[in-house]
């Protein structure tokens, strides 16, 4: 397939869904996850409905080596995309440490509402000048840095850019990623979109003739539709050229056959109005790029916002292209389930459609089973999906169009196709008498415990070949300091040890071992002087868990296909600047950031002052003062800011090398003492 791109990894978070499985449950069950708003009003036009994401204040700052203070200033859009990108790469079966190919990052994003609703009000209420923290606030909240933050954290060296085309941002980012792959600008790409409202959960005021729903329901293409409701979310997909993905035995969710972007121009009613001509053109361009005939399309995941003008123009463009194809085309929109996710709307539609292709089922589109008769769908070959149903097309592979339309006329469309593979069935997984090893590691004991628990539950419900487990967990996962290594012969033993791994009480008895020589060779390389397999296994386990690097021989056959398996468990803590007047900086009553406060040398001991500077800029606690500045998430920009404060306070001159040479509180205190003398 010429110009084909494989989707090999995914992750998402949308209202009511924190992962792919939860998202699929919402979709297949036809649920709308809207809730009553957290506020109310006596205004008769107030609509007390809202979509919300779970835990937008939570983040594993320590995992990404970001200081507590930086994490507080950072827009949740950046934080959540960092975690999502990591999850998507692991879902694709890749270890970030082993990625040598040029990997691009393309993310669609909107503005930071966190800066407006939280950061600036919090600084103002606490008497802190924005100038003092401009760097942290700017880098943490400007959408420009979302992609490069991901590239830096994973050492990805391909193109890295943030895309902003309003509601079509994430599909436009996907299109640009595909073009980058096809021109060999990169060999793998992470792309997606994010939109998080820091003030989520609140209702809204309905205004006649605007796009908000008066009823508090988003019902695309329905007789009852009266507008849309904004929400939020994020999603990430990992892309590779199809031939490369096949050669590398990647798990392929679906194939992108074509994509296109355009703009409506001015030949339409107004700047914010959609254009039938523009939408028709972009769909035809996407089909033509993949050499796909309209007759082969059996499903369209529309932009479908629930507005009368928008839905009507979309249907008109679909009719121009597909009405004469002779085949039935099903139509749907995810906005009935999760609302309009703005910059993440396109990735929400894409992930939904990819899951439908993977599982060969279509999910109901919520329209109260009352289609809008003005659109003329009745009697045409375009039909809304009303039930969870099997997706079939006798004449062609399963193919779908996915669209996203940005207010202002920036349109994006993608053509998807199913990818058929041979899944491993339970009955075909043959237990043998070899001893297998399984490595799991994390940055904290709690994360490791949760990872074991998640994998245990997953293996109870899913059949996974031991060769796949070996490939993913022993070779395609990064190694961290908290570790466990499990040795086992059969599935029951693996499950038992995942549930309770205790080497002292290990009752493993290997009556027959088919790979004895392999185990003996590992023991010999480690200097273990015994020929008992069980004792060698215990020694291997103890050594690896103590931090000794043990490399197993990668004997996985080249025919073994990767599978999406449970990944890292992030240990979340809340990082949230409150807009109300509240102490957000855990420090002494005096702060070097407050302009009105002057700390004299006579009032505060030198060491305490240095500790306060550390606390103000890094958000550290008492037990962190002996820790290296960089281990606490410090960087060169923060170092310059801290030095500037110290220089101004003591009227001395410092060199940045003073901070870099031995970046601890004690060392900085001693340097200041010498200069003051």
UniProtKB/TrEMBL annotation:
InterPro entries noted in UniProt: ACP-like_sf, Ketoacyl_synth_AS, Ketoacyl_synth_C, Ketoacyl_synth_N, PKS_assoc, PKS_Beta-ketoAc_synthase_dom, PKS_NRPS_Biosynth_Enz, PP-bd_ACP
Location of the Ketosynthase family 3 (KS3) domain: 2-418
- Origin: domain of life: Bacteria
Ranges for the Carrier domain? Answer: 601-676
Query: What are the entry keywords?
Result: Transferase
Instruction: Cite a single GO BP annotation.
Output: fatty acid biosynthetic process
* Gene Ontology molecular function, alphabetical: 3-oxoacyl-[acyl-carrier-protein] synthase activity; fatty acid synthase activity
* Pfam families, per database record: KAsynt_C_assoc (PF16197), ketoacyl-synt (PF00109), Ketoacyl-synt_C (PF02801), PP-binding (PF00550)
Return the protein name.
Polyketide synthase
């Amino acid at each position: 397939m010429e110009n084909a791109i494989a989707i090999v990894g995914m992750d998402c978070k949308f209202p009511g869904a924190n992962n792919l499985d939860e998202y699929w449950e919402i979709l297949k069950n036809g649920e709308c996850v809207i809730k009553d708003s957290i506020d109310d009003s006596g205004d008769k036009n107030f609509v007390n409905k809202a979509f919300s994401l779970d835990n937008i204040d939570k983040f594993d700052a320590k995992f990404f080596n970001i200081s507590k203070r930086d994490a507080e200033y950072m827009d949740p859009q950046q934080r959540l995309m960092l975690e999502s990108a990591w999850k998507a790469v692991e879902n694709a079966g890749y270890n970030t440490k082993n990625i040598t190919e040029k990997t691009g990052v393309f993310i669609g994003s909107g503005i930071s509402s966190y800066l407006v609703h939280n950061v600036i009000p919090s600084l103002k209420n606490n008497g802190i000048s924005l100038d003092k923290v401009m760097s942290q606030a700017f880098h943490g909240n400007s959408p420009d840095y979302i992609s490069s933050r991901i590239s830096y954290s994973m050492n990805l060296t391909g193109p890295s850019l943030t895309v902003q085309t309003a509601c079509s941002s994430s599909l436009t980012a996907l299109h640009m990623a595909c073009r980058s792959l096809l021109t060999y600008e990169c060999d793998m790409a992470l792309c997606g979109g994010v939109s998080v409202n820091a003030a989520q959960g609140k209702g809204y005021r309905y205004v006649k003739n605007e796009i908000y729903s008066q009823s508090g329901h988003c019902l695309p293409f329905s007789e009852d539709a009266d507008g849309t409701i904004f929400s939020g979310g994020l999603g990430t997909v990992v892309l590779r050229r199809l031939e490369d993905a096949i050669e590398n035995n990647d798990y392929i969710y679906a194939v992108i056959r074509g994509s296109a972007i355009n703009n409506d121009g001015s030949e339409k009613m107004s700047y914010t109005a959609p254009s039938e001509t523009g939408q028709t053109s972009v769909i035809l361009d996407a089909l033509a790029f993949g050499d796909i005939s309209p007759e082969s399309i059996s499903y369209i995941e529309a932009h479908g916002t629930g507005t009368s003008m928008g839905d009507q123009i979309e249907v008109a463009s679909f009719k121009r292209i597909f009405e004469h194809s002779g085949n039935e085309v099903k139509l749907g929109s995810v906005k009935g389930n999760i609302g309009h996710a703005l910059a993440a709307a396109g990735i929400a539609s894409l992930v939904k459609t990819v899951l439908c292709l993977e599982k060969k089922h279509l999910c109901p589109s919520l329209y109260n089973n009352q289609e809008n008769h003005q659109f003329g769908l009745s009697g045409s070959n375009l039909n809304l999906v009303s039930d969870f149903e099997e997706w079939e097309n006798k004449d062609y592979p399963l193919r779908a169009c996915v669209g996203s339309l940005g207010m202002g006329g920036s349109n994006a469309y993608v053509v998807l196709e199913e990818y058929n593979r041979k899944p491993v069935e339970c009955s075909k997984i043959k237990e043998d008498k070899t001893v297998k090893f399984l490595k799991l590691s994390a940055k904290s004991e709690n994360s490791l415990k949760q990872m074991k628990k998640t994998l245990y539950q997953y293996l109870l419900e899913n059949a996974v070949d031991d060769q796949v487990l070996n490939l993913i967990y022993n070779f395609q996962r990064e190694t961290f300091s908290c570790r466990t290594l499990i040795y086992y012969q059969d599935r029951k033993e693996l499950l038992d040890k995942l549930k309770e791994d205790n080497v002292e009480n290990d009752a493993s008895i290997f009556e027959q071992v088919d790979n004895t020589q392999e185990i003996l060779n590992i023991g010999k390389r480690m200097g273990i002087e015994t020929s008992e397999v069980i004792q060698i296994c215990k020694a291997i386990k103890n050594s690896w868990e103590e931090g000794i690097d043990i490399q197993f021989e990668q004997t996985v056959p080249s025919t073994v296909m990767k599978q999406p398996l449970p990944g890292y468990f992030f240990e979340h803590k809340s990082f949230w600047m409150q807009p109300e007047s509240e102490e957000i900086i855990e420090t002494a009553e005096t702060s070097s950031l407050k302009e009105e406060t002057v700390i004299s040398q006579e009032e505060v001991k030198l060491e305490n002052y240095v500790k306060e500077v550390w606390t103000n800029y890094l958000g550290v606690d008492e037990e962190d003062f002996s820790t290296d500045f960089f281990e606490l998430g410090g960087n060169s920009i923060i170092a310059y800011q801290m030095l500037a404060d110290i220089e101004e306070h003591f009227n001395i001159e410092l060199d940045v090398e003073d901070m870099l040479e031995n970046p601890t509180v004690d060392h900085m205190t001693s340097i200041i003492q010498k200069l003051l003398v």
